[in-house]
Amino acid sequence: MASNLLRRNVATAACAHRRLLAAAGPSLPSSAAATPSARTYISRAHPSVVPSAPVREAVESLLADMDERHLRREERWERNKENRVEQRCAYFAAKGGPDAPTPDEIKKDADENEYRRMDESLELALQLNLDPRKPGQALRGSLALPHGNGKTFGVAVFTDDPALAEEARKRGAAAAGGAALVESIKDGTTPVSSFQRTLAEPDVMRHLSAVARILGPRGLMPNPKLGTIVERDALLDALTRQMSGVSNYRTAQDGTIRLGIGRGSFGVEKLLDNIRETMNEIQGVKPESFGKGKKGQKKVAKGTKYYLKAHLSTTQGKGSVLVDMRTVDPTSAFFMSDPS
Q1: Which of 100, 146, 249, 254 is deepest in the core (most CB within 10 A)?
Q2: What is the pLDDT of residues 197-256, one digit of tens each?
Q3: For residues 22 and 109, what is the distance between their CA atoms, to the nearest angstrom?
Q4: Which residue in 154, 126, 153 sits closest to 139, CA to CA?
Q5: Are the C-beta atoms of 62 and 122 separated by less than 8 Å?
C-alpha cells in the first residue's frame, strides 16, 4: 500500500513539473528552447549515411582513381630512377660475381625499361537477401561475360578418347587424359597448381573419385551446375570458353556474391555490358523462396527485397563504391541508367 502511494505521489509531482515547464516555455532563451531538427551524433546504432552513385558514375570514378593512382606511381618511378641505379650499382659492386652487370649496363637497363602499369581488375560484390543454409537459396553457376573477365585459365580435360585428349592439348589444355591423368594427379606427377579449371565427360566421373579429396577442397571437381561436365562432342567448345575466362559465382555464407567483371583497360562501356549480363544472370536464377524469414516459412513476405546492396571495387583501390541499387536491379525502371 505504501509503495503504491509513493508511486502515485511521484507521478503527480512529475506531471506538475511538466506543467511548470510548459508554462515557462516562452520565457526561456531561444537557444535553450530550440531543438535540433536532425541528430548530430554518430554511433554504432546510428551510423553515418554512405552516399551511393549510379552504376555508370561508379565505374567512371573507379577508372579515374585508377588513372590518377598509376600517374602518381609513374612520376615516382621517374623521380627515383637515379636512386635505383645507384643502389643497384652499389649492390653488385659489393656482392656481385663475375657475371654481374656493369654500371653502364645498369644505367642502360634503367633507361630502356619504362614503368609498367598494372591492369587492375574490377569486382562486383552483390549482397542478396539469401540464406545459403536454406534449400534452394545457395546459388552457384557460371556465365560467359560479353567481353570476358580479362583472365586466362589453365584447364585440365578428363576424357577416355586419346584423339580428343591430344586435340585438347593442341588447343592449349594444361593436361588431358583419362585414368592415366587421374593417376598422375594422385601421385603428384601432374601438380594441381598447373591448372585452375577442369572439364570432364560424364563417363569419366567414376575415375575422379580417386582424386576427389585432392580436387574437391580446391574447387576443381567438375560440377554440372558450373557446366564443367559436358558431352564428348561439346568438350572442345567448353574448353575454349573455360580458357577464355568463364566466370564462376557462388553464394557466400552471408548471401554475398563476388564476381570479377573485367579489367580497367576495358573501358566504361564494356564494363557496363559485363555488369548488365551479370545482373541478368543473377535475376534469372532468383529462387522462388528467399529472405531470412521465420523457420518453416515457404512464401516470400510482401515487400521482401531480393537485392540489398551492391559495391564496386578495384584490385588496388583503397575502398569500394556503393552503387545505387536502382541502377543495377533488372526489375527497376532505372536499370543501367541515371535516376536523376
Answers
A1: 249
A2: 899 999 889 888 889 899 988 888 998 888 889 898 888 888 888 887 788 899 998 999
A3: 84
A4: 126
A5: yes
Cα angle: 323, vertex 281, 58; to 5 degrees: 20
Q: Give SS3 for 297.
A: coil
Closest CA to 143 of 306, 315, 280, 253: 280
Closest CA to 149 of 15, 21, 248: 248
Tell me the longest C-alpha to C-alpha distance in the chain.
104
Cell of 18: 511538466
Residue type, 78: E
0.85 exceeded by the pTM?
A: no
Alpha carbon separation from 288 to 15, 31, 283, 306 (Å, rounded):
55, 56, 11, 11
SS3 141: strand
Q: How big, in percent rounded to 5, are the helix, strand and coil portions of the chain? A: 45, 15, 40
By residue count, the chain amounts to 340
